[in-house]
């Protein structure tokens, strides 16, 4: 019994500290502009909505290959950018991620076509399964599409995506989609924003370690 009581006493302090730290984190995420600041840091301040070739990166997808929320959001903004920004071509990049067997870029391309983007202006890259592969495989299409390239993706994804394209020799301007910055306006959504930002920051560290950015 003495051993059990001793272990309880030893665990009590770190347990209380852990719970206090978790509570503090929840308060900071919920009631401060942390996620807004973090998203702006990853987005940067240099971006444009004009160019010749718009590069749209896929995001989430459903098991049947249809667009998830981030892919849908990016595709909507891609249509608006094409309509207003003087673009001649759109490259949509994104393959199928298991268990899906159909590339999500196909659904995104169909959406753009139904919105009125000419079919001859839409170029699909259907093999990539990561940001690095987005850059690698899209670069082959971009060789045949002259003009200023503009990369469209979610605000928190800009830092890694832009540098991944630069790493494979493709210089791009960026057009961020207000994803986390918009969701952070709702206090109930800030925790999911925080998790998205934390995951993206870990990926940035991994890409930097692999020298992919």
Give structural attributes.
single chain; 213 residues; alpha/beta; Rossmann fold
Estimate the strand proportion. Answer: 5-15%
Shape, please? elongated
Strand order of the largest sheet: 3-2-1-4-5
**What is the CATH architecture annotation?**
3-Layer(aba) Sandwich
> How many helices?
8
Q: The biggest beta sheet, please?
A: 5 strands, parallel
Overall structural class, as computed from helix and strand content, comes to alpha/beta
What's the level 1 CATH class? Alpha Beta
Rg from alpha-carbon coordinates:
21 Å
Mean pLDDT: 91
Order of helices and strands: HHEHEHEHEHEHH
Helix content: 40-55%
Give the termini distance in whole angstroms. 56 Å
Q: CATH topology, anyone?
A: Rossmann fold
Which regions contain 5 or more consecutive residues with pLDDT less than 50? none
Question: How many structural domains in the coordinates?
Answer: 1
Oligomeric status: single chain
In CATH, what is the homologous superfamily? HUPs
The total count of strands amounts to 5
Could you characterize what this model shows?
This protein is an alpha/beta fold. The chain has one domain: 3-Layer(aba) Sandwich (Rossmann fold). Helix content is 54%, strand content 12%. It is built from eight helices and five strands. It has a five-stranded parallel beta sheet with strand order 3-2-1-4-5, with helices on both faces. β4, α6 (158-167) and β5 (173-177) form a beta-alpha-beta unit. α3 (69-84) runs parallel beside α4 and α5 (131-142) crosses α6. The longest helix has 30 residues, at 2-31. The protein is elongated. The termini are far apart. The mean pLDDT is 91.
């Amino acid at each position: 019994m003495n051993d059990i009581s001793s272990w309880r006493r030893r665990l009590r302090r770190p347990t209380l500290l852990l719970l206090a730290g978790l509570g503090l984190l929840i308060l900071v995420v919920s009631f401060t502009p942390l996620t807004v600041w973090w998203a702006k840091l990853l987005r940067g301040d240099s971006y444009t909505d004009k160019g010749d070739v718009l590069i749209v990166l896929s995001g989430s997808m459903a098991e049947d290959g249809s667009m998830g929320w981030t892919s849908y959001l990016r595709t909507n903004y891609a249509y608006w950018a094409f309509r207003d920004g003087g673009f001649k071509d759109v490259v949509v990049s994104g393959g199928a991620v298991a268990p899906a067997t159909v590339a999500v870029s196909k659904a995104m391309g169909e959406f753009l076509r139904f919105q009125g983007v000419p079919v001859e202006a839409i170029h699909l890259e259907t093999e990539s399964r990561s940001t690095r592969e987005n850059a690698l495989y899209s670069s082959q299409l971009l060789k045949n599409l002259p003009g200023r390239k503009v990369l469209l993706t979610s605000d928190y994804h800009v830092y890694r995506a832009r540098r991944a394209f630069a790493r494979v020799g493709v210089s791009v301007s960026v057009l961020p989609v207000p994803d986390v910055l918009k969701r952070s306006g709702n206090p109930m959504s800030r925790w999911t924003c925080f998790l998205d930002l934390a995951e993206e920051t870990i990926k940035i560290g991994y890409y930097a370690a692999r020298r992919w950015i």
